[in-house]
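Two entries, shown back to back:
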Amino acid sequence: MSGIFLSFNKSELPLKSMELLSRRGSKTVLQSFESEIQYVYAVSMQQDIEKDIQIERGGVLFLIDGTIYSSPLGKVSSIAHLELAYKAYRNNVACYLDGDYTFCIYDPRERIVLFSADVFGTKPLWFSLDAEGLSLCSYRSPLKELGCRYIHR
């Protein structure tokens, strides 16, 4: 199994949520960042972590589950595609990608979070935005365990 998880939450991630996420992939990696008012957690549950989670020197976080087949940017890895497309097209990045994917980009300098699934929704992406913050995941159960009440796909 594979997937991604990202949460901007006012409290620490419950241990049970981490246990649920760790059972989803053989190489689950948690990156956590503390900002002024929230915790930011990014998890990749892929076989090859280096290809699916990346933090750019400027602090931009890229997460991807799946494959980007082609774009006007040439032949590069899916995570590199995502980074190059974001630099070229910013908020319109999803319009220029073709593939079977779910992605999330967190840019703290611009104070934006972009997330999208491919046009057919091949890879699931659940999200919740409530008083506790924004959380998104490839699976619904970790969001429920986190206490998210309004979960959408």
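entry 2 starts here
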Amino acid sequence: MKSKFGKIPDYFPAVDLLLHQKKFQFHITTTGMVPSLCPGDIVDIHPVTTQDLRVGDIVVNPMKYTLRCHRLMRSYTDKHGKTWLITKADVWPHEDDPIEANKIVGRIVKVTRPRAFARIWLWIRRKILKHVLRTWPVSFLGKTKRALLLRLP
């Protein structure tokens, strides 16, 4: 099964590990949790039970093609006794739809921020640097260096 990005998603082994009470580590690729989590950050995720969750934790739940890491805002129990969690990305003004508590597979316990050089290569791969280079004045880098950097994949 291919994702909309053209490759088999590699988060399935992560969910399997977390469900079997093992820790897991992966790179953050989106900007929804900036400044807490930035693209390129390496996060350690440990399995968690509903009783161990606290408001403010960054929890992990599987989505269709990815793992979502959002902050836990609150929880409530409905009339049938099911516990629901409300999460939110730090940069968004609105909260996410409620998630069943048993869908949460882990909590982020450690964030490692790589050096600036390693993060630059991630930005190049995501084509963010290309946009910045197109908008900066030519005098900043010089015409030749700017042209070479714009040709990077």
